Amino acid sequence: MAHQFFFNPYILDNLPAPSTGFDVVQDLSEPRLRMYITSRGVKTFFVRKRVRGHDTRIIIGKYPDVDIETARGAVAGVLDNAMKKPIVRRKQITFKQFIDLYVANRIRRSEDSQMKLVRSINLHLSPLFEKNVADITRADVVDVIDAIDGRAIASRMQDLLQSIFKYAIEQGYVKENIADDLPKIEQVRRVRPLNKSGVARLVAAIEREPDIFVRAAFLMLVYGFAPRSRVFAMQWEDLDFNHYMWRDWPLSDRAVVLLQDLPQDSFWLFPGRGGSHLTDPRTAWKRVARAAGVPNLTMDDVHKFLMRNLTWASDREDLRNNMNTLLDEILDV
Q1: What is the pLDDT of residues 59-114, one digit of tens each?
Q2: Rounded to the nearest 10 degrees, how much is the dihedral formed by the CA atoms of 249, 253, 259, 260?
Q3: Under 8 Å between Cβ of 68 and 74
Q4: Global confidence as pTM
């Protein structure tokens, strides 16, 4: 164990040198600070730290070239630097190639959510794809963000770019985060444009939709009291028409009638492309929303409106009755 005492110039100047090898002394004022004294009388400040599994001695400087207070003040910074991962400078890589690495190594989402993120990246960040990551400038990032239609999406893409370039620094492809400290995009709180008469007009517009599965999926946004992600991914095996249940969620009478009339030709109630379920029929939804007189309406608006107006009940049958009552009020039955 190192001999401990308060370091001061008088003691350090008069420390005896060992006959062979070296001695170690430790400062009581800053216990992490230590000093080597060699047999030749050379005195060196250092700290010890376990770095990536190895006991490491990090030199601060020789005494008296480095005085005691300077050595004490340097301890924290030296230890912090020791814990930082070494920066590796890598070869050039395009932004598109790096995005693929980022999504594979940093994104932890469901498959549907990850696909949605990739679609947004391809839509909004494609002007950067062919550039090398190290060659992208702050002006390039600003131009891409400014070209995005919609403040909410622009804000999310700006946050994503900050995260991407932070990861690029960690991987050694760039030296600074050019997307950091960009002016925050102020967002205007959106007013949800739906009321009971709007829901009635929406249902009437949906019933004129020609595609049977799209029509049924849109109606289930109303009759099912569930968000679009759950509605579009409905599976036949999750339905129990004998007890009017969808997993642990009750089905309204309108939902039961609607679903029983659907052809059961797929694993999914609302099949989409490539053997998967319906995901994001934006064009059809915009057409329906315009026909209903609420062109800014989103699918999530429908669910939020219904849940605000639904009287909650812990008993499933009572909740199902409340669903039916609300739908009857809205659709004037």
Answers
A1: 999 999 999 999 999 999 888 887 776 555 567 889 999 999 999 998 888 888 88
A2: 120
A3: no
A4: 0.51
| Structural domain boundaries, residue 212 | 196-331
Q: Which of 35, 62, 83 is the last residue of a domain?
A: 83
Q: Does residue 200 sit in the same domain as residue 323?
A: yes
Burial of 166 (0-12, 13-18, 19+ CB in 10 A): middle
317: helix, coil or strand? helix
- Strand order across the 43-51 sheet: 3-5, 22-27, 34-38, 43-51, 54-63
Domain assignment present for 224: yes
Mark whether 22 and 111 lie in a shared domain: no
| Residues comprising the chain, all counted | 333
Q: CB–CB of 153/134 below 8 Å?
A: no
Q: Are 48 and 34 in contact (CB under 8 A)?
A: yes
* 60 in the same domain as 102: no
Residue identified by tokens 């036949």 is: 236
